[in-house]
Design brief:
alpha/beta, Rossmann fold, globular
């Protein structure tokens, strides 16, 4: 079974780029088997729908617009991700991800399972660095994604001891 890890966001708008930063972080700190694909979906949304439809399982990472504190992590399942069930709106590029999943459902090509790890942002200011609260939770979200992949039976190899450049924090 193949799993797609999809990071969404605009890296020019600080915390909005969280999902993309997460994909970069995962690539720096783990190696993945060939049945796991990491996708920097950026702001492409619906344009990447075919990649979602090819996956058996989907793990999305994005910021969410919800009540709570900056850096708070939320987890949503597939049914909650469909347009009429998600209690919060996703970030400004949301017009792609939820609609993409709804279209896939209509076409009968929805992944067997899907999870969203959503994080409440602190800043939508122009800039390429994450705010301190989101930079601080990036490793925790990565650990959640890795744990989910391992729960699904994928074998990952940690490269954390190999070191990597630090994230830029605004």
């Amino acid at each position: 079974m193949n799993t797609l890890v999809y990071g969404a966001g605009n890296t020019l708008v600080s915390d909005e780029g969280f999902g993309v930063h997460l994909i970069d972080y995962l690539r720096r700190y783990w190696t993945f088997p060939e049945e796991v694909e990491l996708l920097d979906g950026g702001t492409l949304g619906i344009m990447t729908g075919y990649r979602v439809e090819e996956a058996d399982r989907l793990i999305l990472v994005d910021v969410i617009d919800a009540d709570g504190y900056p850096g708070e992590i939320r987890r949503y399942g597939l049914q909650e991700l469909l347009l009429d069930r998600l209690p919060v709106k996703l970030s400004p590029h949301q017009i792609g991800i939820q609609e993409m999943l709804s279209l896939s459902a209509l076409r009968g090509r929805l992944p067997q399972s899907a999870i969203l790890f959503g994080v409440i942002p602190a800043s939508y200011a122009a800039g390429i660095a994450l705010s301190p609260p989101l930079a601080g939770v990036l490793p925790a979200v990565a650990d959640l994604v890795v744990a989910e992949l391992e729960r699904q039976g994928h074998r990952l190899i940690s490269l954390r001891d190999a070191g990597a450049p630090a994230l830029r924090v605004c």
